[in-house]
Design brief:
Elements lengths: L8 E5 L4 H12 L3 E6 L2 H13 L4 E5 L5 H15 L4 E4 L24 H29 L3 E6 L12 H21 L4 E6 L10 H4 L5 H4 L10 H12 L10 E2 L9
Parallel strand pairs: 1-2, 1-4, 2-3, 4-5, 5-6, 6-7
Helix pairs in contact: 1-2, 1-8, 3-4, 4-5
The structure holds NADP nicotinamide-adenine-dinucleotide phosphate (NAP).
Amino acid sequence: MALRLENKNALITGGASGIGRATAIRFAEEGANVFVADRHFAAAEETAAAVKKLGRSSTAYQVDTSDEAQVNAMVAQMVKEFGSVNIVVAAAGISHAHYGEEGQPDVAFLSNKSFANWRKVLSVNLDGVFLTDRACADAMIKAGNGGRIINIASAAARIPLPGAGEYSVSKAGVWMLTRVLATELAPFNITANAIGPGFIKTPMTAELQQMPDLSPLMQRVPMNRMGEPVDVANTALFLAGEDGRYYTGSILHPDGGIVMQ
Ligand code: NAP
């Protein structure tokens, strides 16, 4: 049976962990070469090793996706090494300003949110996706072979999260960014879609997963369980492959039914 992404070159940001890593491996299983970008180089190398074990090419690359020069250099490096960017999955993201650091998450209503913390989340989750998409779209247009842009938003793009308003706003921004890009890039045969996951078992939800009783949270999930990273990876695979070719400007929700409620 033909592989669904045979010889495609995919850039995955946030590829060192969680959804990004699962997507890198799922894409490699379907024949893609994967450029694994993340701020954690050692962990990105682990993902790249898993991709290579599947017989595909892979490079680990250290980047801060909120830094314009670093993002441009990342995409230039991928084009130099792989020859093209056919698919990009922008998965690098943070749930609050101090994500990845020791200490408590910043949970505060917007009336009390520091501007620095607001800016931090917007700079990674929205600026970072814009910068990544922009550099990839430019490379795709220049190559003239179309392309697929897949942005990891969240169910929070539609559902306001009290205490994490900046996260919800960043993800709603990603969804609108995706739709604007879909409109502007359609003439170049480049599709742009978003994925809005619900609660997925990754390091980002580690604290939730450790709660002794998940049932109050699961009341919001008709399927009554968290999703796996591969559930999101399979959604990205659909959008990246031939089966998803007529989708653009959509947001798909692997979320166990949260958003429909
Ligand atoms: P994850 O396991 O923490 O993976 C995110 C990766 O992105 C981490 O390796 C993280 O590094 C990296 N990263 C963060 N900021 C970066 C930056 N500025 N430049 C480069 N890399 C950066 O979390 P995940 O759950 O897979 O999240 C992936 C995406 O899915 C995020 O956009 C998240 O908002 C979204 N999402 C997740 C869920 C969920 O339930 N897990 C639900 C909806 C949406 P650090 O570890 O150093 O931060």
